[in-house]
TrEMBL record:
A GO CC annotation given for this chain: plasma membrane
Organism field: Mycolicibacterium anyangense
Superkingdom: Bacteria
Major subcellular site: membrane
Stored InterPro entries: PDGLE_dom (IPR025937)
Keyword Transmembrane attributed: yes
Transmembrane segments: 7-26, 83-106
Pfam families: PDGLE
Domain PDGLE: 6-107
Keywords (A to Z) from UniProt: Cell membrane, Membrane, Transmembrane, Transmembrane helix
Lineage per the UniProt record: Bacteria, Bacillati, Actinomycetota, Actinomycetes, Mycobacteriales
Tagged with keyword Membrane: yes
Subcellular location(s) per record: Cell membrane
Protein name: Membrane protein
Length: 113
């Protein structure tokens, strides 16, 4: 039993290291899809935010309904310095959901046997 706890403690430390520290080194440049949809346009800064000029696919894009969610844009409530915290929170939520699903599956298999 003690061996399992060492494994999970090491696993948790790796998650914190990767999600909390390495995420600060992620590129903020647009990915391939963003670049492709912006071809033919220029992004111009205005008083009301950024605006696209020219002809491109991105001109028809709208804000996603979840763009105001707490972890949108890989930040916590839009705070620029919270990339690591958002990574850790996201990793913990995914692990909790996956762990819960696996626990339910294992439990149903035990009771179904």
């Amino acid at each position: 039993m003690r061996r399992h706890w060492r494994f999970w403690a090491g696993f948790a430390a790796a998650i914190v290291l990767i999600a909390g520290v390495v995420s600060y080194f992620a590129s903020s440049s647009p990915d391939g899809l963003d670049s492709a949809t912006l071809q033919g346009c220029q992004v111009v800064a205005t008083d009301h935010g950024e605006q696209l000029t020219g002809q491109c696919i991105a001109q028809h894009a709208t804000e996603h309904p979840l763009s105001v969610s707490p972890l949108a844009d890989y930040t916590v409530f839009g705070h620029a310095g919270s990339v690591g915290a958002a990574g850790i929170i996201g990793a913990v939520v995914v692990l909790a959901l996956a762990g819960g699903a696996f626990w339910l599956l294992a439990r149903s298999r035990r009771s179904g046997s």
